[in-house]
Each structure stands twice: as structure tokens, then as C-alpha cells.
Amino acid sequence: MDTPDNDVVQSSTSSLPSVDVDDVKLEKLSLKEATCETKIEFMQEELKICTEVAKELRKSKSDGGGGLNQNQIRPREVALITLISKCRVDKAVKKYTSFIDTLNEYNLTVDSLYESSELLTKKLKQKWCKNYEVCGVDKGGRSIMWISSSEPNQISEEQTVVHAGMLYWMAVHSDAVTLRDGCTFVIDTTKQKGIPQVGNERKLQKTWQSLPLRPQNLFIVGASYLKRLFINALIKFASVFSNSKVLSRIRFVEMDQVKEAISDENMPMALGGKDRMQTVDKWVLTRLANYEGLEFDM
Q: Least buried of 5, 69, 184, 205, by fewest C-beta within 10 Å?
């Protein structure tokens, strides 16, 4: 197997979060509601479950809880992880504590996710704009998580890479439809030819596994035959996809096949999509504002 293909695949697959594709049982919202950049309206049942999750997170580990301090538990993060976990309290607690462990590993805190927009833009804009794309919604009204890394993530940049990646992941899940029904996940390898390995690919892969994700479509675009063989081997080695439903949804495709799930206007602007008048950094911060005013008993 030639080296350039290995480099491309290592870079692309180091962006794969943990996934769960079980069907959602909660009520879905309309496509119109999904595309609006507005405050998320949570159901009372969902808020009650979020309260229960927060309570369990505060319990000591010896009592079966998360053992977290109050300053590590915020409504936005609890609600996001709880809904992605399909409102299963035990699963949400496990995913949330894993999320906090990941922040700690990179010397980040929950407070770092709430820095001013000016500071976040200054620190993270380059990685946001190099690694991700702004899209519309798929044909089911779900947000699109589009990864198209065009430069290696250096070891010295790991904290910035993880900080940017977490906030982009959160922004993708900043509407009610995506929270309840999952997203479309696209890994575009077409920009990655010749990107060298820097030695932290598996470390970052483990990091992204700590973030819950429920892709209803999972496309890997532009991978050659050799790349596909390598990706399949890496997937099995890393145990990223432990669910047969997930394995069945991974599709190695070209861009035309992605458009079976995403209309032309909802593609990234560079690929013919609608001009949304926002760079990735502005899109992330605008989307995260959809959680403003969220309250429930903590």
C-alpha cells in the first residue's frame, strides 16, 4: 500500500466520533423548523430527563454516579448529550463523563466552551475553516457534519484541534431535529492527498470516539480502493463501529452519490451549495446561540 493513501486515510478517519444509529422514538419536528436558526424548544419530558441526568452526574462514583462538580455540569451540554443518547439516563451519564474526561485530557474545561465569541474566533477560526464545512440539511431535515481536513493536525495544536472539533460537533447538534433524529456525516477525503502523518492520529481517533453521534447516513467520499482497504482495517482495529447497523450505513462513495441524501443547494458552497453568507466560525457561534435561555432543574 502506497504511503500517500495511508496518510490521507489516517487524517480522515481521525475525525470519526462514537456512533449510534438506533431509530429515534421521540416526536420529530418539521423540515422548516429544522432549518431555522432559532431557540430550541425542548419537550417537558426531555427536560425532566435532563434533570435526572444532571442529578446522576453529581452523585459520587461510589454511589454509581458521575462524580462531577457542579461547575462541570452545564444545561447546554447535558441537554445535547442526553438527547443524542436518546434520553437514556445511564447512557447519557456515561457519555457525559467521557466528554469531561476528554476535556481534562487536553487541559480544557466546560468554561472554555463558553469563552467570548471574539476569543473563540481568534483561537479556533483557522481550524474551523480548514477542517469543516458549512452545509444546509439533508433530505430528512437533519444537519450535516462535513469534515474535509486540508492540513495535518500537529501535536502542538491538539488542544486547539479538540476545542474546535467539539464546538463544531455541538453546533451541528443545535437544532431539535438533529438532536432527536441524528445527522448525515460526510468525510470528504478529496482535499487530503499527500497530507503527512504526524503520529497523533490514533490518539485523536480515540478522542473523537468520546463524542456521541447518530449518523443516519455515513459517507466517505473520494477514497480509492487502497484507501478503502486501509479504512476498513483501521475501523476494525479502532473498534469505532461496534454496531452492525453502523457498519451497514458506511458507504464509500463519490460526490454524486452524496447528493442522493443532500440536495444541491444544501451542499457546501465550494461544491455548488447555497451561499449561506457565513464562514464556519460564524456559523458555529450562531448555531450555539440556539441554546440560549435553556433552563431545567440542575
A: 69
